[in-house]
Design goal:
The chain is built from 8 helices and 3 strands. It is mainly alpha-helical. The protein has 2 domains: about 100 residues, Arc Repressor Mutant, subunit A; about 60 residues, no CATH class. A 3-stranded antiparallel beta sheet has the order 1-3-2.
Length: about 220
Amino acid sequence: MDESEKPARVETAVTEAQSEANQTGVSPEPASYDGQPIVPTKIYARRPLNEEREKAPAATYAKADPASVATPDRDRFYEVGYRGTLRRMVDHVIEIEGPLYFDVLVDRIARAHGFMRSGETVQKIIASSLGRNRFPTTKDGEREIVWPQDAMAESAPYRGAGGRDHIDIPLPELASLAATLRSEEDEDIIRGMQEHFGLGRLAASTRERFEAAVATAG
């Protein structure tokens, strides 16, 4: 076939296809000069960059309410049959607030039952409800830290004071706060922690605690 006849033949084919489509009501498939159908370009929607880079929000400390999982019954507090109820309360507080000091856990459960003081008997009953080896525990001086069941029991992100005094914030969490106050001088970090908690002149015990947090942060 003469090369000069090819465009004319293609044009004729297109005209015939259009004529046939007009009769059947079906749009013709576009033709190309290589005899293959033209594939329309597909455009895919993309997620916004800021959505792709969005990070999970940082953890925030929240105070647990033991009464949200069981109704406190002060009259039954000392009964052995009440241990199951106490255990549900203990588990809930640790899940929401952990890591936390054991004495803070005791206060939370005791206050829910209307006890203004947490004597030795109250502490033993709550310790019994906590059980052995159900939750990881570590020591911070004379105080015991209780961690959630799936925690590494080594480090914890700083979750904000959330109404807590700095003395009731576990040292590993306090160390995470120190790590965010980046400075080459430890004294600057301690001053930053002092300002964060709105403290005036630091007591010797508070300074030692902040220094321990800085040392733990490395």
